[in-house]
Amino acid sequence: MLTKKLTQLEMWEKLNKLSIKAKNKGEIPVSAIVLNDQKEIIAQAFNKNDRTNKVSDHAEIIALNKAGRKLKTWKLIDCTLLVTLEPCVMCFGAILNSRVKNVYFMLKTDKGISSLNLFNELKTKTHLKNFSAVNNLQTAISKKIIKDFFNDLRKGK
Ligand SMILES: [Zn+2]
Asked: Which residue among the candidates 13, 27, 60, 121 is catalytic per the annotation?
């Protein structure tokens, strides 16, 4: 457990730092943090499926699993998930199963199926109360980290 509580903005900053860590390891720079009902960080993770070759090793699922181990339950009731990028459909399924209460992300995806649209269709039937994009001082930084990653990839760096 952390002794010092981070502000919302500090948490997003921490996520961007985690994303840079992922990028430096050659992973798609996406990261996630799970907060308990006291708003303390209980788990953090970044994508690592390119290293592990496991399809489910997205930041969100790794963080949810870590939080479950810490709380000794997979039912993460009253927990909040912060993630840099709008979760994919696989992660959205795990999010629904985990019963977290809130999910916030900085960047909306422009690829594939939008989990935000799925949430809007399903919201009355789930434990998930909030699923939305936030825009803060770290959002532009997050966008740049991902953009640079894919630019470098195209250039073959
Ligand atoms: Zn995912």
From this structure: 60
